[in-house]
Design brief:
The complex is a heterodimer of chains A (218) and B (206). With 218 residues, chain A is an alpha+beta fold. Chain A has one domain: Jelly Rolls, CATH 2.60.120. In chain A, 33% of the residues lie in helices and 21% in strands. The radius of gyration of chain A is 20 Å and the shape is elongated. Chain B has 206 residues and is mainly alpha-helical. Chain B has two domains: 130 residues, RNA polymerase sigma factor, region 2, helix turn helix motif (Rna Polymerase Sigma Factor, Chain: A, Orthogonal Bundle), CATH 1.10.1740.10; 75 residues, Winged helix-like DNA-binding domain superfamily/Winged helix DNA-binding domain (Arc Repressor Mutant, subunit A, Orthogonal Bundle). The longest helix of chain B has 21 residues. Classes of the chains: A alpha+beta (218), B mainly alpha (206).
Chain lengths: 218, 206
Amino acid sequence: MSINHHLDDATIFSYVAGALPQGMALVVACHLSMCDTCRSRLRAPEAVGGALLESLSPDRINDDALEQVLDRLDEPDSTSVSSAAEVMPVQSSEVPQPLASLIGNSLDDLEWKRMVPGICYIDLPSGPQGVTKLLRVAPGGVVLPHTHRGNELTLLLRGSLSDEIGRFQRGDVSDLDDQVEHQPLADSREGCICLVATDAPIRFTTLLGRLVQPLTGF
Amino acid sequence: MENTPPGDDVDNLAFLSKQHAEEFEHMSWTQLLAQLGVSKDRKVYIQLFRHFAPRVKAYIRRLGVLESVADELTQETMLSVWRKAHMFNPEKAAASTWIFTLARNQSIDWMRKQKYPEYSYEEVFHDAEESATEGTPDIDQGLVTDRVMTAINTLPENQAQVLYMSFFEGRSHAEISSRLDIPLGSVKSRIRLACEKLKQHWRGEA
């Protein structure tokens, strides 16, 4: 798969640190499952985690902790079934594995809700701030111009989308923050389906946008 | 006691530990973990536990978890070290790096009451297509850890601060921004600058 738009260093770093809000971490994990390049970029920050772990002064461990763990080594691993499933990527599925655990393996049989004409959505679990949604934009559909108060991550799963930054196709991720204003347009015949996560409300830049903002849930 | 597997004879653990510490003295933690993956040897596991469990607990407590919970999460993390050791690849990461990711997932899943979306770490190792765009040459991973630690120690204070807030407090860009009262863009550029420097050291260019 040819992927042209990748994650920001700051996003990868916080993902590895375990500091990314839930919805953004979902988008990152999905992109990583599709992108060899970004997967290889995990390794330096992960080495930071290892170095930090090694540098900590050891905490006191109860005397019996080791014995308790040793007693459990022969226990059957209740997580092994699910972790085996995690390790096996479902090649035939259009849905990246981290998302598939939430919505299943198909993008076609979902219960979409209407947001505004031309745009449907499905809400996904998010952190305390911001939203996480699967969006389906009809061919030629536009999202009203907006900037962001925080970060906005968008991963294309089907079709394509264009904005001021470029053209995004399956596997591409748009990693934006409050420095950017954009107006995404679904520019292919089939429209597009994308996974979006924010960590703060977005800011519509036109009067119409501000009027309809309450309807959009963003 | 020669016939008793270590661990079954709790009274002798301290003795065993000392004896085996000498037996394994010449091996690095990374080599030991790789050996555990092959042999599932309890003697090897005990060495790893004694070194890493106190550090894993220190990491988890810094995330702001109560001590009793930290004890439990440390045990679960160390149990997964035993169960997943066969997936560890010593050419790709140091033992401390691999165990860090296990401890991170264990504690975040508990704190958020939902699973941290994860592209399985093990999968990366078994991925034949992994591109070599950003790799280290085949060198001892312990050396890589030392280089990265050196890099962390030479970061300017404001970059080290965002690094610690991310790794040890689990704070998002937005949280760091409001805590330090600086714009989101400044948080991200500090992180990017830190990343750049860390990557140079990690690759051995610095």
